Structure formats: C-alpha cells, structure tokens
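REQUEST FORM: STRUCTURE PREDICTION
Request ID: SP-0412
Submitted by: Lab K.M.
Chain count: 1
Length (residues): 413
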Amino acid sequence: MVEAGSSDLSKLTLDRGTARGSGSRSSKRVRTITAVVIVLALLGTAFLWTRSRGGVEVTTALAQVSGGGAGSSTGITANGYVVARTQASVSSRITGRLDSLPVDVGTVLKKGEIIARLENSDFKAAVSQERANVQRSRAGLIDAIAVRDQLRRDLARVEELGAKDAASEQEVERIAAELSSAEARVELQQAQIEVDRSALALAQSNLDFTYIRAPFDGTILRKDAELGEVVAPVATGSGLTRGAVVTMADLETLEVEVDVNEAYIAQLENGQPAEIRLDAYPRDAYEGEIRQIVPTADRQRATVEVKVAFVDVDDRVLPEMAARVEFREPAGAAETGTAAPSRITVPSEAVRDDAGQAVVWLVRDGRLERRIVEAGPVSGGRREVLSGLSGGERLVVSADGELEDGARATEAE
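STATUS: Completed
RESULT:
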C-alpha cells in the first residue's frame, strides 16, 4: 500500500525547468504588447499635437471689390479664346490632284496670290482648242464679208445695166438672192465667233479653277493637304479626297470670344473698354473693347457670347490662345451716373454649398471662420457675393482636410 501511494505521489512532482520557460515566454509577450501600445499612444499624441499646432493647410484668395468709377473694373470677367474674325478653310472649286503647293505654315499672302495648283494639262489643251476655234470663226467671217461685199457690187452693176435694158430681170433677182444669202452667212459667222469666245472663256475659267488663290490678305495657319492628294470642293469622307487645302486667317482681325453670364449683359455695351490677358503671357495686359454682343443667348449655359477686339496687338498673339477678359467702366460713366455699383467677387471655388446655404471660410489670425453669404452668378471663374462680405477678406479656396470653425489654418505657399 505504501509503495503504491509513493508511486502515485511521484507523478505529482513539478518540472521546475518547464515552468520556468513558460513563464518567461508569457512575460516577454506582455512586455511586447505593452511597448507597442506605448509607441502607438506616443504617435497619436504627436499627430494630435502637430495637427493642433499647424492646423489645416489651405490655399486662400482675397475677396475683390470692383466698380465705382470710369476706367475701373466692373468686376465682370469672362474666359474665352482668341479667334480671327476673318478666317477660312480654302478649297478648290473643282476636283483634281495637287501638282504644286509652294506655301507653308506661316506664309503671308496677299489677296489673289497662288496657294496651290492642280494638274491642268488637259485644261490648257482645251483653252488652246477653243482659241483656235475663235481664230477659225474670225477667218470665216472675213471670207463671208468679202463674198457679201462682192455681191453688193455685182448687184449694183446689174441693176444699172437692167435700167438700160442690158441685163434681164432674172439676173437681177439671182444676184439679189445670192446677196441675201451672203449677208446671212456673215451674221452666222458673227454669232459663231461669240459662241467660240464663250467656249474659250469657259475653258479659261476652268483652267483658272486649277489655281487655288488667297481669298484675302492673310497668313497660312495649317496645311490640310499635301502634293499628290486629290482635293475637291467638298470632302467625300472616304479619305480619298480632301475638302480643304489650307486654313488661313487675317491676323489683323484677331479678337477674343467669351461667354458672359446673362445676368451681367445689361452692364455691357459695344465699344466698352476691356483688359485682355492671355494664359501664355499672364503678366502682359492688352487693351481691348467690345466689338459685338451677339444678339442671342445659350439657354443651356445661360450665357451670351461677347466679341472683344484688340486695340493693341503684337505678333505674339495667336489664334486659339486661351484668354481672360476683364471689362472696364466706360469713360465718363461716373459723371453720367451710369457707372456700375461696387461689387464683391471671389473665386467660384471659395463658395461652398452647406445644407442649401452658400458658405465661405475666412482665415483670421490663423484660424478658420465659417460665414454664410448671399451668392450671385458666376462669370469667368469668379462669383459675386451680394451680402456677407465687405471686401478684402482672405477666403479658403482649397484645403487638405476638413474645415472646422475655430480650427487653426496654415496657408500654403
């Protein structure tokens, strides 16, 4: 019994080496988890501290005040493109293959100068043939006139002899009939000459059609065809023919076409001064004036097209350049009382919709301030603010995070 009990108790003996290893691993695991939690806490604290210290990074712009005097800005701006008032895609009047194309992009031409020539050997041959027909008809007319004049003399002589009973009446009648026939042949030859002259003019016109000429003084902007290609008055769309040879424009007639919000059209008039700035040369301003307000509106965009002509233009201004136009008050507007009232405009991106309200975010002393405003229409990327701002405020245009009233803000460089 004792031996059996001793044997059972021996099974309850604790392996001190095994217990020591298990406890060590658990302790290491706890220490590792604790260290990770501490590091995450420190990182979170550092982020919150940095965020509260630096704030949201924002891009800002000023609320601008415009209008109120002759020559000052009306606050109405619009974006558009430079176009040539006189521009054309020049094509041929007949179908043919290009045999000569001496011009290139940038070539300056006078009205009537040759741009290109089609193959025209057959047209030249037709002109030569019709010219020969005219010469033949003229020779036939000379012969007919000679015969007629001779018969006139013969008839006069026979009538004189008949009066002396030296010639019969039948002889007189025969010569008179021959004279009538000769006079008809003269008239016929004269008519034939006119027919041949008309045919010659037609052949010459067809030959002239093989020469493509400049319709006005201008500059070649683009070559639409090359030597050997077939050109036609109207392109077939199959790729076998070209509808135009070149595109040219009179660069003296450059102007800017812009779309103005219809809410501001009543404040614009023909001849009103404007300032034009090109995206290609943003530091240079060009004087312009309204040439035409197109008498129709775009119902989809609620805009009206306005054409602004350059008062001063240089060789750097090219068609299709992007441009921004700022309209000025007309001269003498303040004296006549027609000057537009002062207006406050901001970048359209600065006005946000918040639950149906127009809201802007101001930056004051490094902190954000939310303000509800009454916003007007957009024109040229800027939006009018009817109330809520006095002008000169610095507004948030974009931000790298959420905007909160009272939060710190850092302006981006």
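NOTES: The chain is about 35% helix and 35% strand.
Reviewed by: T.R.
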